Amino acid sequence: PAGSNTLISDEGIPGLTISTRKLNDLTTHLEGSKLKIEALAGTPKLLVMKQFLNHGLNPALFLAGIPGDIAGGVVMNAGVAEDIVPREFVEIVEWFEVVRDGKILKFQNSDIKWSYRKSEGWQPGIIVKVGLQWEGKKIEDLESIVKKANEVRFSKQPLDMPSCGSVFVNPKGHKSAKLIEETGLKGLKIGGAQVSTKHANFIVNLGDAKASDIHQLILKVQSQVKSKHGIDLHNEVCYLGKW
């Protein structure tokens, strides 16, 4: 997998790590005005986005703003902050398949408990294939719209630097980046890790950051935001390994 939104301990991960990178293939077909896509787990979201884009369909706009592979998008119900439709995976997933104890189980969208940056009810197991669908009117000049949206994203987010992506989920009624900025933490450094000066909900690697630097910076941001605003920031980043 791509490892987006993942922070791996400096001590590594004990045991076996399985990569789904070679599970990279997709098929598409139309049912009337509905586009259906079947994608293996390791298929980059970018390739799926291009299929929607080729058909002039809305999901291209939000998928263009999300890194990583398709199965990871299902696991965390990935989405974007913009007020667009669709904006989260729950809106485009029809079904997905999970390997568990040597068997393949198929889950429909309605079988899953979806919430902000989370999908539950299918674990344990490994997602191996995802079925997506979208029905809608073809949007003229969608490629230009996607390009402009990405230009805005690049201007507001440190996408030219290594990071885990958005660090914290947005508390209800608040934006994590705004809370962090109002606490005066933009640019704060620990070791080689820094709260981005471009977008406060990103922690970037200046070149020599350890996972422990990023972890300590996360804890410091959480503590200071709690002290100033009385609000708990919860991680969007997933921790793997020994901590």
Structure report:
- The model has no long low-confidence stretch (mean pLDDT 95).
- The strands form 4 sheets. The protein has a 5-stranded antiparallel beta sheet with strand order 2-3-8-4-5. A 4-stranded antiparallel beta sheet has the order 9-12-11-10. A two-stranded parallel ribbon has the order 1-13.
- The protein folds into 2 domains: 6-143, 2-Layer Sandwich (Uridine Diphospho-n-acetylenolpyruvylglucosamine Reductase, domain 3); 158-240, UDP-N-acetylenolpyruvoylglucosamine reductase, C-terminal domain (Uridine Diphospho-n-acetylenolpyruvylglucosamine Reductase, domain 1).
- The protein is an alpha+beta fold and 243 residues long.
- The chain has helices at residues 45-54, 59-63, 70-75, 142-156, 176-182, 211-229; strands at 6-8, 26-31, 34-40, 93-100, 103-108, 113-115, 118-120, 126-135, 163-166, 189-190, 193-195, 202-205, 238-240.
- The relative contact order is 0.15.
- The chain is built from 6 helices and 13 strands.
